[in-house]
Design a protein that fits this description.
Elements lengths: L16 H5 E3 H6 L4 H7 L7 E4 L2 E3 L7 H12 L25 E3 H7 L14 E6 L10 E6 L6 E3 L2 E3 L2 H9 L5 H13 L5 H10 L6 H28 L6 E7 L5 E9 L4 E5 L8 H17 L3 E5 L1 H6 L1 H14 L10 E4 L1
Parallel strand pairs: 5-6, 11-12
Antiparallel strand pairs: 1-3, 2-3, 4-5, 7-8, 9-10, 9-13, 10-11
Helix pairs in contact: 5-6, 6-7, 6-8, 7-9
Protein name: Transcriptional regulator, AbiEi antitoxin, Type IV TA system
Length: 345
């Protein structure tokens, strides 16, 4: 006798709708479906279909974008240990735990709400990160990406998703369209998903900075990031009542050498602000040494230098304004600074 619905000692009503529509063969067995019944239900004229190896779609229509994502995670996740239910029980949580499987790439960026990525149903392939030693193959619409260490995922719509910088790097690795790469990177920064330095760090780790179209996009990304950071710096001064500085200047000793450029400078208090927009590239140590030499030289001349990062300006603007205000107030307790020439940069 053929059953159109499973004989289920563990009823499906406690699961959310999508989890009732996509289940693994093991989960179906735990709901009372035998191997013979599963085969019968998945026949060409049956009510179910096999979505991926050992993953079953419990209807015959095309899978939704959400079903495709859950199916990909069910395929890639490590099976629960014996005695541990792979799906939540009636008394347990309403969402499954996808062990050792994280969505990344374009599908992840779509989940984050990127406008430059296709809709979920239009994403041809779902990239899933798994630990390097897992014995698992890409199949169907699922591409398995192995990594030495899984990133700590963010939960987006109940799904484990790689952080934006990692998802972006995995997407860029497969893109050859320079304009598409540039749009994704620009949106990541402009929409506030992450800072440029985090993106460059992931691109460096993925060894993608030897591709000319990626390097060009990174240059645009860094310029975009600096522009956003400068806007935040202007806002900080305006919104937190700091005195107006002179903006974007070069300092020189009278008749002497160039001391360096600054994003903001208060001549009366001899306080300078510089945005630290370094990106973690191979020459980071040399660039940091240059920053340090510049700071030491200015401070020997009695000029206080405050370094602000784009991330601190974004996440803790009030605190950074207090740091600058403290430096301005402390100027009266210091010896007068050396006279310097202030020139527009």
């Amino acid at each position: 006798m053929t059953h159109n619905t499973p004989l289920s000692p563990r009823p499906l009503r406690h699961l959310s709708d999508v989890h009732r529509r996509v289940l693994t063969a093991a989960q179906l067995r735990s709901h009372g479906v035998t191997a013979a019944e599963l085969t019968e239900q998945c026949r060409p004229t049956g009510p179910w279909r096999q979505l991926l190896p050992n993953v079953v779609l419990l209807h015959t229509g095309a899978p939704t974008g959400e079903e495709r994502l859950h199916g990909a995670l069910l395929y890639a996740a490590r099976e629960a240990a014996p005695g541990v239910p792979a799906q939540p029980t009636a008394e347990g949580p309403h969402r499954p735990t996808y062990t050792e499987a994280v969505i990344t790439g374009l599908a992840a960026l779509t989940l984050y709400g990127f406008s430059a990525t296709p809709q979920l149903l239009s994403v041809d392939r779902v990239d899933v990160l798994v630990p390097r030693l897992r014995r698992l193959r890409s199949t169907g619409y699922v591409r398995i990406l192995r990594t030495a260490a899984l990133p700590t995922p963010r939960m987006v719509s109940g799904l484990p998703v790689a952080p934006v910088p990692r998802a972006l790097a995995d997407a860029v690795a497969e893109l050859t369209d320079a304009e598409a790469v540039r749009r994704l990177m620009t949106e990541a920064v402009r929409a506030g998903h992450c800072e440029p330095a985090a993106v460059v760090r992931e691109l460096t780790a993925a060894k993608l900075l030897n591709r000319p179209h990626v390097v060009d996009a990174v240059d645009s990304l860094l310029a975009e990031g600096r522009s956003i950071a400068e806007d935040r710096l202007y806002r900080m001064v305006r919104e937190h009542g700091l005195p107006d500085p002179v903006w974007n200047v070069d300092l020189r000793l009278p008749g002497g050498p160039h001391l360096g450029g600054l994003d903001a400078y208060w001549p009366e208090q001899a306080v300078a602000v510089e945005l630290d927009t370094r990106a973690p590239r191979q020459d980071e140590d040399a660039l940091w040494s240059e920053y340090a030499r510049k700071r030491e030289h200015l401070e020997r001349l009695g000029i206080t230098v405050v370094y602000l990062t784009p991330r601190k300006l974004r996440d803790a603007m009030e605190q950074q304004a207090a740091v600058v205000r403290t430096a301005l107030m402390a100027s009266g307790d210091r010896d007068p600074a050396a006279y310097v020439v202030v020139l527009p940069r």
